[in-house]
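Trying the structure run again after the queue cleared.
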Amino acid sequence: MKKKFILFLVSPRQKFCNYPAQTELAKIFGKRRFMIPLALPTLAALTPDAFEIHIYDEEIESLPEHIKPDLVGITTLAATAKRAFFLGDKFREIGAKVVFGGAYASYMTDEALLHGDSVIVGEAENSWPVFLKDFENGQIRRIYRPDGMVPYLSQPPPRWDLVNMKRIFQVGIQVSRGCPFNCDFCLVSKTFGREMRYRSIGNVVDEIRSAPTKYFFFVDDNLTFNKNYVKELMKALIPLRISWGCMCSIDVAKDEELLKLMAEAGCFNILIGFESLSPASLTEANKGHNQGGKNYAEAIRRINGAGIHINASFVVGFDSDTLASFDRIFDFTMEHHLPFVNLHLLSAPPGTAIFDKLSGEGRLSGYNSDLGGGHIPNMHYKNMSQEAIFEKYMETVERLFFFRTIREKALALFEGGNFTRPGGEIPFLLKMRLVVITFQAFLFTSDPDRRKLLFTMIHLVRSKKVAVDKGFGFLISILGFNRHILEHRRNHNQYMDLIRSRNKDYRKEPGVHTDLKSHIA
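Done. Tokens:
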């Protein structure tokens, strides 16, 4: 029998991880990470039998030293690029061939090729089998570019059997590619095109049935763009009794039939990119399709009315933003009772229009790809120094997740009785673990606001305003956010030293920096 090539598929660890990654929440569930990149098990499913495949996500397990691979495929994001290239150098030193893929390597191919043998640009479904055949023949090319977009009508189920499922909570799933919008800070439409492509619903259902979990996250950037398609998808999901979250634009609120179907199909959380409350910032980001505040109240009411949480995503750092932008976001979340908030500092990933703009203006001097996680400044802002924006960011995140803040939001959010539908099934031992952790964290504490939040939730559950699992799941989620934020606060001095070391040419007064033209690197 011919010896198989040993293939490693690797997702490098991130040096600075932001709180929306929910790593502390995963630990509460006894896991290492909520989920791993979908690219790795998807590529494994497209790999022929000539390869012995090993999948490694460094966030959940270390790379083995006792196995020598013949080939290593490494996926890259801006926040993992340095680690990816370090690994590429190490694997090449022991004689392995290294191929990079993912967003960062796709747009920084020259840099990637300094540390690897090949780069697969963009979508990999067509390029990966060609690359592997070339590898078997000993004649790989430096760059593989797709000849147009893949049809994306179907795909084989990801190889979750190669992943240590005991260390992750949920798995990713994707039903569409593309985005009709062209936001300046986003790579989706540039990478996957502006024309939407959809898998057959039967193919999606088959993948879900074969998955090793009932918990999913749809990684589509706008799951509900095609309302007719997603309604048929929801009808097919209802019998499967799964629990899931997704991303979509706020216009989903216009279709109450769709919201009802999503809730019945197991949707418990929607991440919505509000991005900014400033019309000027939305225009600057080329995201004019957002409402900029118009009718937000009614849209939020309808989504919550369906028993679905909103994970509200905001970005601060556009040229029209000031430190007061943080306060407006905080006030907005209080007014509309939004407990789950993803707050980011504007970053500029390579390949985006904003990266090109800021590079031309000299405002990316000191750019560090490790800081692509969105909570440490990685550019020079027009109206805010890096020190000032970071301090205000940390202050605002802490205010957003103060237990008394969350209690005020929870009372208003749950009082209407919209969250009484039970969620997904939880194994008995995990349920007992979460109960113990909840009471330890919220009852046996010197913080009176924690205890008040616990008693408030118990009251809401007993008065049948919220389902038991959703009420206590809410407490656990908030605890996870708080633990991560506390860890950020412990590292505050380290972050500030890093910021100052990269920002020596800029004035230290809060909210002000000098003329950029005199400081182009």
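The CA atoms of residues 27 and 118 lie 36 Å apart. Worth checking whether this holds up in the mutant runs.
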